[in-house]
Known about the structure:
The complex is a heterodimer. Chain A is of the alpha/beta class.
Amino acid sequence: MIALSGVTKRYPGGREALCDVTLQVPEGEMVFLMGHSGAGKSTLLKLIAGIERPTRGSVVVNGQNVGALRARALPFLRRNFGLVFQDHKLLYDRNVFENVLLPLDILGYDRREAARRVRAALDKVGLLPHEKSMPIAMSGGEQQRLCIARAIVHRPAILLADEPTGNLDAAYAAEIGELFRSFNQVGATVVIATHDVQLAESLAPRLLTLASGRIGGDGAAGVTRTGEAPGETTAVGTVGSTRAGGAAGLTRAGGAADSTRAAGAADSTRAAGAAGSTRADGAAPAA
Amino acid sequence: MKSWLSHQSRALTGTLRKLVRSPLSTLFNVTVLGIALALPAALYVGLVNVQNAARAAAPEPQLTVFLALDATRPEVREIDSRLKKHDEVASLRFVSREQALEEMKRASGMAGIAEGLAQNPLPDAFVVDSRSAAPAALDRLRTEISGWPKVASVQLDTQWAQRLGALLELGRVGLLLLATLLAFALVAVTFNTIRLQILTQREEIEVATLIGATAAFIRRPFLYYGALLGLLGGAAACLLVWVALAVLNGALADLSYFYGARWELRYLAFADALSVLAFAAALGWLGAWLSVGRHLADVRPM
Lengths: 287, 302
């Protein structure tokens, strides 16, 4: 559960990146943050991950007020997240395998278990044959997928992605989209900042539109895209649509059904997560 | 606990890999630290050797009891029996004034002087071996005997050894000062090395912090690096001292051959070598710790 209320972020120098943003992302939901560059998408993700602190307002993740968290507690909050960075932030003195290993190293995983998980994550993004390569020798798309593998290798509860398909051609972008969807289907909350309309259309998540630091629209894919009835968009909150198979445009009633499902989601998703993990692990020896 | 251990071992192997990956800079760093540590270590070995040589050259502590010139035979016998009965006295030898004069005549260069004397100016004397070699006990014995009748003076033959001891003490203080100074140098060298490392590993630190690494996780490899660097520097210092002593001993063997003796410098004792290593590792760790505390905040994102 991510909840922002009245969040304003002003950078030194006076630029206001976000202005009075209030929103909630329930557990297990997939949300796209849409908007032009400079609209505050990245800032919003940074506030959620505790990389920046809000100037005003509160950011609450899993019941913890991120902005007020002590520095010592911050690492433990961050372990709930998988972060996909716009600039990848890969380590160029390490090979592909070692890059993906880093989060597990931080968590203190056993060597063999860690290696299995790394291979499973690399397999998911299709980079298993390149595990010994150095990232510098890879294409932009491959680097992006490597960054995603690193973000999901420790199976975080929340995946935050900043322009994850920015450097990918349409085919790869769709694949990455499916990856996020499958991740969402096993119970992870997924928040993606992007302006890739095609991706939004194919995944049909809840869409949040940011415009100059303010929430401009909240609704399902398709509805905001046509964008002709803003009143309508506020009435929509389709969390489960992605899981139900992409029926965009559920109404409030659907949202209510959602919330009951969300309440039960904790257990069911966990079970699903376990199923997913065995599947992922099973794939490793075969490779 | 298990994850703690795996964190430690992983930091250690990672650090070793880092050391091996840049062999040249590692070599130079280790050499600098080795030389800095070798200086006090060599001085220490020198002190130990001088001390040993002094102990070997020094005779058993003896007291020479000079009697008054007017002491008569019975009085001399009286003192003789008193000394023999004394608990602290192990053995004694009487040197009569005639005997002493004979010895003086025999001694080269003194013959002429002795011939020219109208009468024997030398007193009777006892050379006393004490049971205890402790300076305090010797001193007590000396003051006691000095108080006896017809005893002119009592001389303690260990005074030169005490002077040497004082001199060695001076050397030890000098060693301590030098060691302190070079310990600072060692800390400074690791401090700077770690600072450079932190700067080159900026990205790694940033990424690790962003994905949930604790400050301890970030700090650990640097601390290990500092300690390992110190340890290697200590090992280099021991090696340098060993090589220097081996060379000196080779030269000394030739010299001692002509004197018909066997002189040999002692090497750094095993326990001392171990403490050099431990000391160096601790200082390296300290330098790294200071550096990390100072520089990590500049690099880490929030």
